[in-house]
């Protein structure tokens, strides 16, 4: 699911300081090379998603007919209903809605919006904008009653009537009427099977009202009372996805900004919808839109002039409007014939921006635009090294968690870095116990990973794109790259959670780390190789199951989904990011069920995934298994909803190693309840058969601090070892690739006396 802010999403959720993307609802999933992940909580201003992505180097640079997948999309962070309720409306002597004008509280009940004709219009006018805002989240069962095509036509006619009579404020409740139409498109998009398709009559009916508003002499009043209606009218000009039709209105908005009278009362955000229209026209690759720009290329100059005038807002409340102007100016270079005109304008602007200071956001926006559309000439903009400059400036907190994990953060305290390392290091053993792998898949060289942590969602949305080229309409991404390529750098980008419960945490940290482990040990080749096969049910479901189980978190949303019995198991095998609920909640349910009830089938499936036999995996799922488990899965859902899924899944743990010598380790077994006093050792030896590709020894649990050492030549000591894992507690992991045959040696050194520790060995 893509939650669009400003176009479809409830504007009442927007926040002026957050970079909220306005995205085109996709036909299915994200751009090629991207995997989406969960949003169990709602970080302001909207739903966040997590993505596993392919090689960021694949982002196009400056090729005609190729829009960059990491293209920045316009922000529309203005919440007009807040203005509608402002003191300015009170000063006008007219309330924002009938109920408010009379001082009466008007009840807001979504079921009431099934009314028709004049009754529906009276209802919409009587409620406040917050009530209309709530309709964006209307339950699907009420969606058809509230937003049938006949109702949209009725309200569109009422908008036209109100626009003709518009007096420069919301006394006629035109905002509520326009916002209702916006909500209708959003709800219909998410519930097409329920609401039905809208015919061409709906956009035809909306057009006269929008035109009538902008033909009104009060349309561009620079007053607080006009800010909200103007913003809603501008967004409505984009909601029907007809950029050619509404291009004249976009031009009017751009030309209106000629004085400082606009620099107040959220009026700048009311001009911002112009960039939505421009974005839609170029992003849709509409040849008619291209022809219109060719006829009147002075529009490019208008955008550049707007950005130059808006420079005074860099780093301020209207910073996002300025960034949108820079972004859309660069996007014109998608068409080669416009590059000569755009280039000097964007170069002049970019020269005024810097990597630090108030113009940081615009520098990042310009650098991304150059990368996508004119990278061959990046030297003329001075942006060729901006990715490295931004990384060096902002990722200044570095922690080497283990030989394989490094954290690069904007700002994390030492105890936060240590705690994050502990959590990641301890997850390895849990993951391997779940998937029962035999080491990395063939040709996977991603033996190390960088964990990049931004300070907030807003920082992530801005900085990750310029640094790494990924899209940021999500809650983080795993950037796998090309795992068989020497020198490839695997990383995942995430951000600190700044909402909800107190305390420090990183959003989707363990989910994303599972993607790294799964890609390295279960999925052969690159993301692009696997993505054409519907593997999202496994990759996203496993990431949910492992992260939640490792953290001992109850997936309440999955339990709620189980009670609804929405999908059959055989249907879930075809999942490919259709929507958030199916991908994550039902992915969790499908993977957990298969692991608990049909482990041999999971082992067979992973054997195929690990070879990259995607056709074989489809045959196993759709033919060999087919619908055989559907009835049992449906029954299991009842048990899950009744409480079974509130327990941590009963994944098999490694059994105790055989033999009386507690120093002896073996294949896939554990030694438990180990202890040593400070400065002493618990020693181990292990016989490695010839041809073994990998040995992994892990310590966990207990109290104190034990550090793990490895020596292939004799007993391992702090002054006699080849490699070690020395974290702040007992969560240590050592992975030895292509070990020599024969006896090898490990030890757990008591940096601080430990007890109750387990050591596992797997190969």
Tell me about this structure.
By secondary structure, this protein is an alpha+beta fold. It has 32 helices and 15 strands. Among the domains are: 62-78 and 242-373, no CATH class; 81-240, no CATH class; 532-652, Neutral Protease, domain 2; 664-762, Jelly Rolls, CATH 2.60.120. It is 45% helix and 13% strand. Strand 4 (405-409), helix 22 (414-435) and strand 5 (449-454) form a beta-alpha-beta unit. Helix 4 packs across helix 7 (149-164), helix 21 packs antiparallel against helix 23 (457-468) and helix 24 packs across helix 26 (536-551). The chain is globular.
Oligomer state equals single chain
Class computed from helices, strands and strand pairing: alpha+beta
Give the number of DSSP strands.
Answer: 15
Low-pLDDT parts are: 1-66, 78-105
Q: What is the overall silhouette?
A: globular
């Amino acid at each position: 699911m893509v939650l669009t802010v400003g176009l479809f999403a409830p504007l009442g959720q927007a926040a002026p300081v957050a970079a909220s993307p306005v995205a085109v609802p996709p036909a299915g999933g994200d751009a090629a090379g991207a995997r989406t992940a969960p949003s169990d909580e709602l970080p302001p201003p909207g739903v966040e998603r997590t993505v596993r992505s392919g090689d960021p180097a694949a982002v196009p640079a400056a090729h005609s007919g190729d829009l960059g997948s990491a293209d920045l999309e316009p922000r529309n962070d203005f919440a007009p209903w807040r203005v509608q309720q402002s003191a300015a409306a009170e000063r006008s002597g007219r309330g924002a809605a009938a109920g408010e004008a009379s001082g009466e509280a008007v009840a807001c009940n979504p079921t009431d919006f099934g009314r028709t004709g004049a009754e529906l219009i009276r209802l919409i006018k009587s409620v406040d904008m917050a009530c209309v805002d709530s309709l964006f989240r209307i339950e699907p069962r009420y969606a058809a009653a509230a937003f049938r095509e006949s109702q949209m036509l009725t309200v569109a006619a009422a908008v036209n009537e109100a626009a003709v009579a518009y007096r420069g404020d919301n006394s006629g409740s035109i905002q509520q009427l326009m916002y209702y139409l916006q909500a209708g498109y959003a709800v219909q998009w998410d519930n097409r099977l329920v609401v039905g398709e809208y015919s061409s009559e709906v956009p035809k009916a909306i057009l006269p009202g929008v035109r009538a508003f902008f033909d009104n002499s009060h349309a561009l009043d620079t007053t607080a009372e006009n800010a909200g209606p103007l913003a809603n009218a501008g967004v409505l000009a984009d909601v029907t996805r007809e950029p050619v039709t509404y291009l004249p209105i976009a031009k009017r908005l751009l030309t209106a900004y000629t004085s400082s009278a606009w620099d107040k009362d959220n009026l700048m955000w009311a001009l911002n919808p112009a960039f939505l229209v421009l974005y839609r026209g170029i992003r849709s690759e509409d040849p008619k839109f291209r022809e219109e720009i060719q006829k009147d290329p002075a529009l490019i100059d208008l955008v550049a002039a707007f950005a130059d005038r808006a420079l005074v807002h860099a780093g301020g409340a209207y910073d996002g409007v300025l960034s949108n102007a820079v972004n859309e100016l660069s996007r014109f270079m998608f068409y080669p014939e416009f590059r000569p005109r755009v280039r000097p304008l964007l170069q002049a602007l970019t020269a005024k921006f810097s990597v630090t200071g108030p113009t940081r956001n615009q520098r990042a926006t310009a650098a991304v635009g150059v990368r996508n559309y004119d990278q061959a000439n990046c030297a003329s903009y001075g942006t060729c090294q901006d990715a490295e400059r931004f990384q060096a400036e902002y990722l200044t907190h570095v922690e080497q968690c283990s030989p394989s994990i490094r954290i690069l953060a904007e700002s994390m305290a030492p105890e936060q870095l240590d705690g994050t390392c502990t959590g990641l290091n301890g997850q390895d053993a849990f993951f391997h116990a779940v998937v029962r792998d035999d080491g990395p898949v063939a040709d996977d060289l991603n033996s190390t990973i960088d964990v990049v942590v931004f300070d907030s969602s807003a920082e992530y949305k801005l900085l990750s794109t310029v640094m790494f080229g990924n899209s940021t309409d999500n809650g983080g991404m795993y950037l796998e790259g090309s795992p068989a390529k020497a020198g490839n750098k695997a990383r995942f980008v995430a951000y600190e959670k700044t909402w909800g419960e107190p305390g420090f945490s990183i959003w989707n940290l363990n989910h994303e780390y599972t993607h790294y482990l799964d890609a390295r040990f279960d999925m052969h080749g690159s993301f692009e190789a696997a993505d054409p096969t519907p593997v999202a049910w496994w990759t996203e479901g496993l990431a949910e199951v492992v992260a939640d189980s490792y953290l001992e978190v109850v997936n309440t949303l999955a339990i709620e989904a189980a009670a609804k019995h929405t999908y059959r198991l055989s249907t879930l095998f075809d999942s490919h990011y259709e929507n958030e609920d199916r991908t994550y909640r039902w992915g969790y349910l499908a993977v957990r069920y298969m692991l608990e009830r049909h482990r041999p089938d999971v082992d067979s499936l992973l054997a195929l995934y690990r070879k990259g036999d995607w056709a074989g995996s489809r045959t196993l799922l759709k033919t060999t298994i087919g619908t055989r488990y559907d009835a049992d899965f449906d029954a299991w859902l009842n048990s899950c909803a009744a409480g079974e899924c509130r327990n941590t899944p009963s994944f098999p743990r490694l059994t105790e190693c055989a033999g009386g010598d507690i120093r002896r380790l073996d294949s896939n077994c554990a030694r438990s309840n180990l202890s040593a006093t400070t400065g002493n050792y618990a020693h181990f030896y292990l016989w490695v058969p010839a041809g073994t590709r990998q040995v992994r020894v892990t310590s966990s649990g207990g109290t104190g601090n034990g550090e793990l050492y490895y020596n292939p030549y004799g007993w391992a000591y702090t002054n006699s070892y080849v490699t070690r894992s020395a974290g702040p507690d007992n969560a240590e992991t050592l992975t030895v690739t292509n070990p020599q045959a024969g006896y090898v040696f490990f030890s757990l050194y008591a940096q601080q006396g430990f007890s109750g520790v387990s050591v596992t060995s797997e190969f």
